[in-house]
Design a protein that fits this description.
The longest helix is centred in the first third of the chain and has 25 residues. Helices cover 75% and strands 0% of the residues. By secondary structure, the chain is an all-alpha fold. Helix 5 runs antiparallel to helix 6, helix 6 packs across helix 8 and helix 7 runs antiparallel to helix 8. The protein is globular. It contains eight helices and no strands.
Amino acid sequence: MKRKVAGIVFIIGSLYYILAEAISAAHFNASFIDTYIFHTISELGIPNAESPLFWLMNSAFIFIGLILIFGNFYRFGDYITKNKAVFYALSLITGIGVIIVGLIHGGNPLMSGYHTLGAVMAILGGNVLLVLISRSMDEFEVFQQITLILGVFGLIVFWIMFFSMENIYMPVLERLSVYTLIIWSFLTGVYLIRD
């Protein structure tokens, strides 16, 4: 029962995030495609006229952060047989990082440092977490292999983004490094339900 509850929660969280971002992007002060290509996810969460549904995007950050912590501690941690302490620590770092991004928006110069810290905790921490998970379970089957691919891909894209912040396509790199965790959350939900 715990397995199915955690699985459903992971799936709901990942789908809520994708839908919330898409709806927020559709109401952003730019075309839908331009928003995804030229505007960062964080811009969707800044409370101003550019993003009238900023509260929806921020709720998605907070929701996915809470779900990651809940799912990993409530059930998925039972599948981790090695590096448990590091797994739980990284789960907290990643989840709290995403929540910080949702609570402290990047448009406030006095608080933007905290927002950036939260983003690094979420993106870097999240993709390191995926690599760790893939190597900390008993088996190295399809789920673990996909988890490893997502984590390595996310880390590579994160570092490319980190060293090319002025690139006009930086928002695309940001999304690619974030979506690895969202995709993993959905796949983990399916994995838990079917296991």
